[in-house]
């Protein structure tokens, strides 16, 4: 997993609430047995019409946001299915950070396993980012170590919360399973305790 | 100190607790299916790791399986995914109910059937509807594929302790009002993300009176309220359901297990972080009109008006949903015509669900403009239904009687609702495109779906003659 700390990028404003993982990655793309290559299917049915032509009204087809690494959406992002293909698609497309007022639990957890930083900001902060970001590109700098999101245009800095464990995992790009193996004795002791 | 079942089961599974870290939680049972596991097994292979406790894993095929002819998988990518699961289970020593196995079925239906699902267990699966198993007083939740790999290698997960929420359904349900209507009403009333960060315990008289199959329907959809998991304290109903099931102990060992299970129930006076209540007598048969499970209302109601909402973003969401669904603001639900009926899914494809639907349609015929299918939740459900002649009732009424699997709930196999067409579905998600690109889904109970199949539009089952006997 690629570590993450400071990222500066234009934000992509996706002004929708309750974006479910069926929209992020549709079921027809879940049959593949690989972890990579899902980026071209991200938000497929919003990005493309039934003939496969890009939908000019959808934000991912707006050339102003082509190089963006930061996706901003409204509340309860990632609800529904547990499919990790959703963060795989987001990452493969080029986003490293998703900012929203809130996330569904499974999606939130899946992000950390893939080197994506999900950030919760206040609703008023998100509202401003979404409307300003649509009007003209807004550049943000995210600093994980300091837990801040800074707007380049207004120089406002927003603080965000993250639990220390997830923060360390992302900053270091650690493989969680290797870490857990350090607790093998405790796991074995637990198993012995439960069977006796 | 008085404790909730959530705290009791959680505490029993903590392997280690350290400052600044989530709890390392032991996982008793790991269920697997073909869609969310291949990358996890591949991860094990790449790292040279093995499955720590293969006997705590159980796999089946459900998402991709064809329901017309189980021997013909039309899509080679789907076939490869299933072959991959077979190879992975063989390589790592995991028991598998493959596509034609007598125990095959939707993973959340067969776990309870086989007695793998038991009170007090921690249960995970790479599938959000794992919450179903909470009906037994287990802590059961969906995980991503990286976590599937983590559980395969270590039999544990790092988990932050969730908050506790009580959802109390007081009073008694009216005639024709089912478990499905209760959970749809809970989600509509309290919101699609009310449960985020919480485990919900469902309590109250109306919940106590439910059968195990109905309790599974409730817990199944707790994820649609955003909950980490949903559960119900075990009682005599739970114990009676489990007795005699294959993986459940027998004789004295069963009595000992049952005593332990019952002791898990939430203590009198235990305190939850949040308590919400709903009066059962207020709940009507429900129909969703929008594009998430909270967008629903009682059958006597209508599609909302944008002006019913105060915030601009909610008004916008309503307009988008209504446009996608091809409806109009203010339209009565009973004016909505449907072209498809799907009776199936991990929410509502158990024997009692099929019985409820069959009771409505017996001696009648599916509306000429409607295509209706029944997809039993498991091969066992299918066998039992056939033993009591339910297949004949459905077929005579013009329903197609299919093989078991997830089917049209998410349309990964050939069972797809065409673009622009409308389906009355007993499944759990009405998201855009869920049942096929451009398809329109209305979530309902099995009885409501059956009544819609006959009438060709939504109808209040409380007014159907058979419900008035």
From TrEMBL, chain A:
Domain Aconitase A/isopropylmalate dehydratase small subunit swivel: 8-123
CDD domains: IPMI_Swivel
Pathway where it operates: Amino-acid biosynthesis; L-leucine biosynthesis; L-leucine from 3-methyl-2-oxobutanoate: step 2/4
Presence of keyword Amino-acid biosynthesis: yes
InterPro entries: 3-IsopropMal_deHydase_ssu, Aconitase/3IPM_dehydase_swvl, AconitaseA/IPMdHydase_ssu_swvl, IPMI_Swivel, LeuD
Entry superkingdom: Bacteria
Molecular function per GO: 3-isopropylmalate dehydratase activity
EC number: 4.2.1.33
EC main group: lyase
Keywords associated with the record: Amino-acid biosynthesis, Branched-chain amino acid biosynthesis, Leucine biosynthesis, Lyase
Catalytic activity: (2R,3S)-3-isopropylmalate = (2S)-2-isopropylmalate
One Pfam assignment: Aconitase_C
NCBIfam families xrefs: leuD, PRK01641.1
Subunit text: Heterodimer of LeuC and LeuD.
Function, in words: Catalyzes the isomerization between 2-isopropylmalate and 3-isopropylmalate, via the formation of 2-isopropylmaleate.
Family according to the record: Belongs to the LeuD family. LeuD type 1 subfamily.
PANTHER family: 3-ISOPROPYLMALATE DEHYDRATASE SMALL SUBUNIT, 3-ISOPROPYLMALATE DEHYDRATASE SMALL SUBUNIT 2-RELATED-RELATED
Official protein name in the record: 3-isopropylmalate dehydratase small subunit
Record organism: Sporosarcina aquimarina
Record lineage: Bacteria, Bacillati, Bacillota, Bacilli, Bacillales
From TrEMBL, chain B:
GO molecular function, one term: 3-isopropylmalate dehydratase activity
Protein's pathway: Amino-acid biosynthesis; L-leucine biosynthesis; L-leucine from 3-methyl-2-oxobutanoate: step 2/4
Cofactor: [4Fe-4S] cluster
Domain Aconitase/3-isopropylmalate dehydratase large subunit alpha/beta/alpha: 7-456
This enzyme's EC code(s): 4.2.1.33
Cofactor note text: Binds 1 [4Fe-4S] cluster per subunit.
Keywords, sorted A to Z: 4Fe-4S, Amino-acid biosynthesis, Branched-chain amino acid biosynthesis, Iron, Iron-sulfur, Leucine biosynthesis, Lyase, Metal-binding
Catalytic activity: citrate = D-threo-isocitrate; (2R,3S)-3-isopropylmalate = (2S)-2-isopropylmalate
Enzyme class (EC, first level): lyase
Domain of life: Bacteria
Pfam (any one): Aconitase
Entry binding sites for [4Fe-4S] cluster: 346, 406, 409
Family label: Belongs to the aconitase/IPM isomerase family. LeuC type 1 subfamily.
Protein's job: Catalyzes the isomerization between 2-isopropylmalate and 3-isopropylmalate, via the formation of 2-isopropylmaleate.
UniProt subunit comment: Heterodimer of LeuC and LeuD.
Protein's UniProt name: 3-isopropylmalate dehydratase large subunit
Organism in which the protein naturally occurs: Sporosarcina aquimarina
Name of the encoding gene: leuC
């Amino acid at each position: 997993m690629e570590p993450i700390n400071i990222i500066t990028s234009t934000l992509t404003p996706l002004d929708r609430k309750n974006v479910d993982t069926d929209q992020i990655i549709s079921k027809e793309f879940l049959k593949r047995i690989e972890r990579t290559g899902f980026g071209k299917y991200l938000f497929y049915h919003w990005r493309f019409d039934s003939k496969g032509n890009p939908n000019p009204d959808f934000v991912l087809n707006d050339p102003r946001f082509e190089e963006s690494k930061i996706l901003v959406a409204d509340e309860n992002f990632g609800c529904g299915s547990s499919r990790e293909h959703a963060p795989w698609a987001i990452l493969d497309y080029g986003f490293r950070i998703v900012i929203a007022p809130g996330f569904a639990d499974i999606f939130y957890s899946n992000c950390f396993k893939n080197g994506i930083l999900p950030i919760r900001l206040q609703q008023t902060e998100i509202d401003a980012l979404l409307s300003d970001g649509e009007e003209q590109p807004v550049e943000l700098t995210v600093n994980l170590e300091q837990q801040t999101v800074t707007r380049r245009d207004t120089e406002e800095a927003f603080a965000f919360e993250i639990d220390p464990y997830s923060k360390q995992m992302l900053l270091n790009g650690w493989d969680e399973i290797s870490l857990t193996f350090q607790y093998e004795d405790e796991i074995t002791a637990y198993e012995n305790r439960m069977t006796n | 100190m008085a404790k909730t079942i959530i705290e009791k089961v959680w505490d029993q599974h903590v392997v280690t607790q350290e400052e600044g870290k989530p709890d390392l939680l032991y996982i008793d049972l790991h269920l697997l299916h073909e869609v969310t596991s291949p990358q996890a097994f591949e991860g094990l292979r790449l790292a040279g790791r093995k499955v720590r406790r293969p006997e705590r894993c159980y796999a089946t095929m459900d998402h991709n399986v064809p329901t017309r002819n189980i021997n013909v998988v039309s899509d080679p990518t789907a076939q490869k995914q299933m072959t991959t699961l077979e190879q992975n289970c063989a390589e790592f020593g995991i028991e598998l109910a493959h596509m034609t196995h007598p125990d095959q079925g939707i993973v959340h239906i067969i776990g309870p059937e086989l007695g793998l699902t038991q009170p007090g267990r921690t249960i995970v699966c790479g599938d959000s509807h794992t919450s179903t198993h909470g009906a037994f007083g287990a802590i059961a939740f969906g995980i991503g594929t990286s976590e599937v790999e983590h559980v395969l290698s270590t039999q544990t997960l790092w988990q932050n302790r969730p908050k506790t929420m009580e959802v109390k359904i007081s009073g008694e349900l009216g005639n024709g009002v089912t478990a499905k209507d209760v959970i749809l009403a809970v989600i509509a009333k309290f919101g699609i993300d009310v449960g985020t960060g919480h485990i919900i315990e469902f309590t109250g008289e109306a919940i106590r009176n439910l059968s195990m199959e109905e309790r599974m329907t409730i817990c199944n959809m707790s994820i649609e309220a955003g909950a980490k998991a949903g559960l119900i304290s075990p009682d005599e109903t739970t114990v009676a359901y489990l007795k005699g099931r294959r993986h459940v102990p027998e004789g004295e060992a069963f009595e000992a297990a049952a005593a332990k299970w019952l002791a898990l129930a939430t203590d009198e006076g235990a305190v939850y972080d949040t308590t919400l209540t709903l009066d059962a007598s207020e709940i009507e048969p429900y129909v969703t009109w929008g594009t998430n499970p909270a967008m629903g209302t009682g059958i006597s109601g209508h599609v909302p008006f944008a002006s019913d909402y105060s915030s601009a973003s909610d008004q916008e969401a309503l307009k988008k949903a209504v446009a996608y669904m091809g409806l109009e603001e203010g339209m009565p639900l009973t004016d909505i015509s449907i072209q498809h009926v799907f009776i199936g899914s991990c929410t509502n494809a158990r024997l009692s669900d099929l019985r409820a639907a069959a009771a409505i349609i017996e001696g009648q015929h599916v509306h000429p403009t409607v295509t209706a299918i029944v997809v039993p939740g498991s091969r066992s459900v299918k066998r039992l239904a056939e033993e009591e002649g339910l297949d004949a009732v459905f077929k005579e009424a013009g329903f197609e009687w299919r093989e078991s699997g997830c089917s049209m709930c998410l349309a990964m196999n050939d069972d797809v609702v065409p673009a622009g067409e409308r389906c009355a579905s007993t499944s759990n998600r009405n998201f855009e495109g869920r049942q096929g690109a451009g398809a329109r889904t209305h979530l309902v109970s099995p009885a409501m779906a059956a009544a819609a199949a006959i009438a060709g539009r939504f109808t209040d089952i409380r007014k159907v003659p058979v419900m008035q006997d």
